UniProtKB/TrEMBL annotation:
InterPro entries: GAF-like_dom_sf, OmpR/PhoB-type_DNA-bd. Residues 258-324 form the OmpR/PhoB-type domain. This is Transcriptional regulator. It comes from Mycolicibacterium madagascariense. Coiled coil: none annotated. Gene3D superfamilies: 3.30.450.40. One of its GO terms (molecular function) is DNA binding.
């Protein structure tokens, strides 16, 4: 099986490691413009990742990934992760043959946290020197270009060869990774990675990792068919997505067990958010005031509720008061739940942007402010510069001068992170001038 064309960009022009290292040195030292990479034989997928890594302030001289905020809860995270049930499949296809091969097999969560790292014992010990260990954050935003992190960032399989890594400490290694998705919803669950010598960058390695990812997805799909009751208990019947700039979405399981996704109107999204936040129910008068304290009447609310019932079937909305009669989860509740558990990293991963940013509902605006402020406060209180950097990447963080000042003061003197923060602060000062 050959390397797919999409993964073999400029295959005939791949630069030797010495040439790659020379370009890397010029780029990370700031001696060339980012557009310079387009004139070199570096693969476009790698050049784009280097640019993202530099823009996010990744330190190419770092000692590898730092421990994720979920390290202390790693065992619980493993047990609850959907890929835990597929470990026997991964071990049979990859780990069992890696015992004496110099290859490390890793499985990550969707946010880049390494959950399991197994394989050749000697290779695993060597990988520990760059903190390639369970609980470490190997997302692209944290350590720069690397196969599992970049595969998650792009949601595609790929290989990263030695000097293509952004962090120098990872450049002795080659790696191949493929993302894994929920077979019913298509949601990204994590990635499977092979790390080792030159043989890991081969077409055969890519085909093997790709086949393993497919086998894992098939295994998860089979579990849904053979253990439907367990699956029904493991997830809620419906899910509401209302964070970020994308159009709000309603996800539900139909009578045949298929997962469906429906786009919501702004008004329906407002109503559903308010109903999920008020399980005790809301009267038509109260709902009207929460949606629009001036111009909305009860008749309009009742008409909207009638239309909403048809949209969200089979979930039922009760009347007098209006309330959801089936369990409904949401990305808003995920953020709040993670913060209550003290897991700021997971809360930040679930927070993809402000709650319904276009909504004019006064109740939604209040909840939007509460959610964003609570998360920002938790991030700053954690003292974790990695989490702070992730917060500042969000739209709300771009004008957060106090946050950028904290990043500037906390980053090492002369580091890329400090330089990025200083430049951003200068831009904010110019805007206020």
């Amino acid at each position: 099986m050959g390397v797919p064309k999409a993964l073999g960009d400029r295959a005939s022009l791949r630069a030797p490691s010495t040439a790659l290292r020379a370009v890397h040195e010029l780029f990370v030292a700031g001696r060339v413009d980012p557009s310079y990479l387009d004139t070199t034989p570096i693969r476009p997928v790698v050049a784009e990742s280097w640019r993202r890594s530099l823009a996010k302030g990744v330190d190419p001289d770092g000692e590898g990934a730092s421990s994720s905020s979920v390290t202390l809860r790693l065992a619980r995270m493993r047990d609850a992760h959907p890929l835990a049930s597929a470990l026997p499949v991964i071990r049979k296809l990859l780990v069992d043959d890696a015992a004496d091969s110099g290859v490390v097999v890793a499985v990550t969560s969707a946010d880049g946290t390494l959950l399991w790292v197994e394989g050749d014992p000697e290779a695993c010990r060597k990988a520990e020197s760059m903190n390639f260990v369970p609980g470490a954050d190997w997302s692209e935003r944290h350590v720069g270009t690397n196969a599992p992190g970049t595969a998650l960032a792009l949601d595609r399989e790929l290989q990263i060869r030695s000097s293509e890594h952004f962090a120098r400490v990872a450049q002795p290694w080659n790696c191949t990774a493929a993302p894994v998705h929920d077979p019913a919803t298509g949601v990204l669950l994590g990635a499977i990675d092979l790390t080792g010598g030159p043989e890991v960058a081969s077409g055969q390695a890519l085909a093997l990792v790709r086949a393993t990812a497919v086998a894992v997805e098939n295994h998860l799909a089979l579990l849904r068919l053979t253990e439907p009751r367990a699956h029904a208990r493991a997830e809620t019947s419906a899910h509401l997505r209302v964070l970020g700039a994308h159009r709000p979405r309603w996800q539900f399981t139909d009578e045949s067990g298929e997962r469906r996704i429906t786009a919501l109107t702004p008004r329906h999204a407002d109503i559903l958010v308010l109903l999920t936040q008020h399980p005790e129910g809301l009267s038509a008068d109260h709902l009207a005031m929460m949606l629009d304290d001036k111009d909305l009447d009860v008749v309009t609310v009742r008409a909207e509720m009638s239309r909403l019932r048809r949209v969200i079937e089979p979930v039922v909305v009760g009347s007098r008061p209006y309330r959801l009669l089936h369990p409904v989860d949401s990305d808003v509740s995920e953020v709040f739940a993670a913060m209550r558990a003290g897991d700021v990293g997971s809360a930040l991963s679930a927070y993809t942007g402000a709650l319904l940013p276009q909504s004019m509902s006064p109740a939604i605006a209040r909840l939007r402010t509460e959610l964003g402020t609570s998360l920002r406060t938790a991030v700053i209180a954690s003292g974790d510069l990695g989490l702070l950097s992730r917060w500042l990447e969000l739209p709300e963080g771009r004008d957060d001068r106090a946050g950028w000042r904290l990043l500037h003061d906390g980053a090492g003197a002369g580091s890329i992170g400090q330089a990025q923060a200083r430049g951003h602060l200068a831009g904010l000062d110019l805007d206020l001038a």
